[in-house]
């Protein structure tokens, strides 16, 4: 297969990645440390000292940048987003449910999962939904080198474009793991970084570990709804379609 391997950060020593890296204006990318992580692919370990403000490292200091997308501009809009798919079975069930409820959503897909179910990308678009990038291998982006970040983002964009003709505009870092270095690279590649509205993280990923119940998730939704009237903007909620248990709650 000409595509990167499943579950791995794409190789950077290839003609494709070299050309992509060369097209970036690296003078606009700050030189920040590559973050440490216990095991490859996991989110980074946060340092004991405070994160310098100019690094704006969301995962470890909650900092967001002026152009991070965190809310929908319209107050009455609700950005329904699903991460970590496409997953055969689960994604189809979710598409069916959304069609039934007549709502559209944005699916932040990984390149690796897409490469195992490319037909689901087209099906998602055909039903009026949006696709966005959740990187190739779902690694903590701040733990990767500049070249690896480029490879993660560009291979995912290329995979989706080559299979659907759909041009990705938005990128959501796995675990929300983004700092000013990763943001600058994404910006250079033409992607807007999307985080999520804090009180609207449904924590549904904990279903996988059975540490949260469907009722608790429902109450996160209800609390979010209560806070709606106080908001100036519409929320972006975060859910997942990578695991069958999660779609049953939706
Ligand atoms: Zn994710």
From TrEMBL:
Record keywords, A-Z: Hydrolase, Metal-binding
UniProt cross-references to InterPro entries, sorted A to Z: Glyco_hydro/deAcase_b/a-brl (IPR011330), NODB_dom (IPR002509), Polysacc_deacetylase_ArnD (IPR050248)
Domain (NodB homology): residue spans on this chain: 76-250
Entry keyword annotation includes Chaperone: no
Any one Gene Ontology BP term: fungal-type cell wall biogenesis
Residue runs in coiled coils: none
Cellular component terms per the entry's GO annotation: membrane
Pfam families tied to this protein: Polysacc_deac_1
GO molecular function terms listed in the Swiss-Prot or TrEMBL record: chitin deacetylase activity; metal ion binding
UniProt-listed PANTHER family: CHITIN DEACETYLASE 1-RELATED, GLYCOSYL TRANSFERASE-RELATED
Protein's recorded name: NodB homology domain-containing protein
